[in-house]
Amino acid sequence: MTKPFSIAIHGGAGTILPEQMSEALSTEIRHDLEKSVRAGHQILARGGDAVAAVVAAVKVLEDSPNFNAGRGSVLTHTEMVEMDASVMHGKNANAGAVAGVRHIRNPVELARDVMEHSPHVLLIGDGAEEFAFKHQYQYTEQDYFVTDRRYEQLQSMKEKGLFALSESKYPDDNKHGTVGAVAMDQHGNLAAATSTGGITNKQYGRVGDSAITGAGTFAENGNVAVSATGMGEYFIRKTVASEIAARMRYLKEDVHQACEAVIQGDLKAMGGEGGVIAIDGDGEIHFAMNSSGMYRASIDIDGTLTVKIYVDE
């Protein structure tokens, strides 16, 4: 017996204000969000697996220069792109992740292949890329990922001695532009995927929550799938994604209660800004954020499409 299916995606949360957003950029971003969620939904509609759906959705956002993942990733202190991604399948708690990759066009695909074609969960740096090339991935030059916007952003950060997305002249400066997707397929499987370029001007091989199972990504059949976006260090310390799952599993909170309790509760009290997208075992979707906006879209079990940016939409 097939079940209803649904999908939700995000392109980052943070200080996203209408007065800072041009109409042209808003239209472009909304188009990307719709394209992403439709790509994943088409797979679900054909009876495809939830993992295939979330990977397809995230790839669309990685390929867009408008988000901090894949092409358009922010730059490190040494003017490089270093990307992280993770995928989790709720059926057998299987997971795969990569961190610090520099020459892989779609890190979310590599994270999936770590999950499906290796005995490991997390591969980093040169080792992750060695694994990729053994599995016929193409070497992608850094020039593909770097945009003028991100280069200017890095210079602004260096001048101010900062290492975040909070102090430059772009409309999404104070935004944590991680991208992600969660889905439930017709077989009741839940899956989540998350991908990011990290933070501007990062040093020392820093890795955030996007590559950490249970922090930025989590999926458990019959319970919930979660993808997070925000200040990674806080999301790791609070193990945000697994905390939401635990509240649902043990306290019997619904997806709305659990997400809000974590995002508006301890995480916010710690100083952690950001949000999550989540989907429960019935395909119910929830977006939670303690910021002024989150790029997001969904197609629910009734087939209704929504695309939103600001917190009050």
TrEMBL record:
Pfam family, any one:
Asparaginase_2
Q: Using the record for this protein, list the coiled-coil segments as residue ranges, or answer none.
A: none
Q: Which domain of life is it from?
A: Bacteria
Please identify the protein, giving its name as recorded.
Answer: Isoaspartyl peptidase/L-asparaginase
From what organism does this protein derive?
Vibrio zhanjiangensis
